[in-house]
Amino acid sequence: MGAWATGNPSRGNPGIGNGRPNFNLGSIWAQTRAVHIKGTRVNYNMPAQRMQEQPLLHLQEVSKLYSGETPFLALDRISIEIKKGELVSIVGPSGSGKSTLLHMLGCLDMPTGGEIFVEGKAVSKMSDDAVADLRRDTIGFVFQEFNLAPTLSTFANVELPLMIRGVPKETRREIVERNLAAVGMSDKAHNLPSQLSGGQKQRVAIARALANSPKLILADEPTGNLDSKSSAEVMSHILQLHKKLGITVILVTHDHALAEKTDRIIRIMDGKIESDTRKKHAGKNTG
Ligand SMILES: Nc1ncnc2c1ncn2[C@@H]1O[C@H](COP(=O)(O)OP(=O)(O)OP(=O)(O)O)[C@@H](O)[C@H]1O
Ligand SMILES: [Mg+2]
């Protein structure tokens, strides 16, 4: 992959400029682009609204107040943008609001203040069905506890979201086989979760998260239940999905070494962003 490749040029690019990065390039080639029409080079002025690509996710002053006997403000006016193709980790002490934030980013739970925009669309203005469709079609979730169906084989666990979507059998088989191969689990296709190690279970969970070709993988402590060897293996698969498929990845972790492997680290403290740092060359996915 070239220095500017983003992995999946067919996804999210506006057509002109394919092969160039999806990231917001500001002034580099926002104003005028050259296109070829019947072999003739023509300068093309980008309409203003197309000049800046929408962030994949935008949280605007998002708060979450858990109500109950002792109400608790778990997120306090958090504003962040996540661009397509980013590899982000969320770190912070236990109870600081990392999982709550991840749930907001994944539209698994609604904020009590502020607004979440997914590709420019305000989630609060969508119907419940539209939010459920958005989650299913855009986001793959990976959790610390794997959440595999215990009575289903590896193959059937990965197949399940495709069945729910009504994908035909032969296509399902192709997708499941491809996703299991991507995480090195083809040889355990017929095992039940109880016949797999922790790291293997998590790799199945990642293959399942890939079923609907998500734009975004959200992972909450994906290596939290694993020993260091399995943890490194699972992490290397997640990094490969980012590099090879250009999938945006946001992961919550306690593991500093793991966070250091990502391009951007958002540090949460008491429901607020304490810092948000990018590596110097983040965004130039060097595959
Ligand atoms: N359903 C709930 N009702 C009330 N309070 C909650 C609820 N869920 C979470 N909290 C509180 O909100 C705060 C943030 O919780 P969250 O699960 O987001 O933390 P975290 O940073 O993911 O922690 P950990 O690293 O331990 O997983 C905590 O103080 C927690 O007790
Ligand atoms: Mg948590």
Q: What is the level 1 CATH name of the domain at 83-110 and 127-278?
A: Alpha Beta
| CATH level-4 homologous superfamily of the domain at 83-110 and 127-278 | P-loop containing nucleotide triphosphate hydrolases
Supply Rg: 20 Å
Structural class: alpha/beta
Task: Point out poorly predicted stretches.
Answer: 1-33, 44-51
Strand order of the largest sheet: 8-9-10-5-11-12
Under the CATH scheme, which architecture of the domain at 83-110 and 127-278 would be assigned? Answer: 3-Layer(aba) Sandwich
Can you give the mean pLDDT?
83
- What is the helix tally? 8
The counted number of beta strands is 12
Topology overview:
Layout: E1 32-37, E2 40-45, H1 48-51, E3 57-66, E4 72-82, E5 87-91, H2 98-105, E6 113-118, E7 121-122, H3 128-138, E8 139-143, H4 154-164, H5 169-182, H6 198-209, E9 216-220, H7 228-245, E10 248-252, H8 256-260, E11 264-269, E12 272-278
Parallel strand pairs: 5-10, 5-11, 8-9, 9-10
Antiparallel strand pairs: 1-2, 3-4, 3-6, 6-7, 11-12
Magnesium ion (MG) binds near residues 98, 99 and 220.
Task: Walk me through this protein's architecture.
The structure is a single chain. By secondary structure, this protein is α/β, with parallel strands linked by helices. It contains 8 helices and 12 strands. It has a 6-stranded mixed sheet with strand order 8-9-10-5-11-12, sandwiched between helices. Helix 4 (154-164) runs parallel beside helix 6 (198-209) and helix 5 packs across helix 6. The chain starts with 31 loop residues before the first strand and ends in a 9-residue tail after the last strand. Mean pLDDT is 83; it is low at 1-33 and 44-51. The structure holds adenosine-5'-triphosphate and magnesium ion. Magnesium ion binds next to helix 2. Magnesium ion binds at residues 98-99, 220.
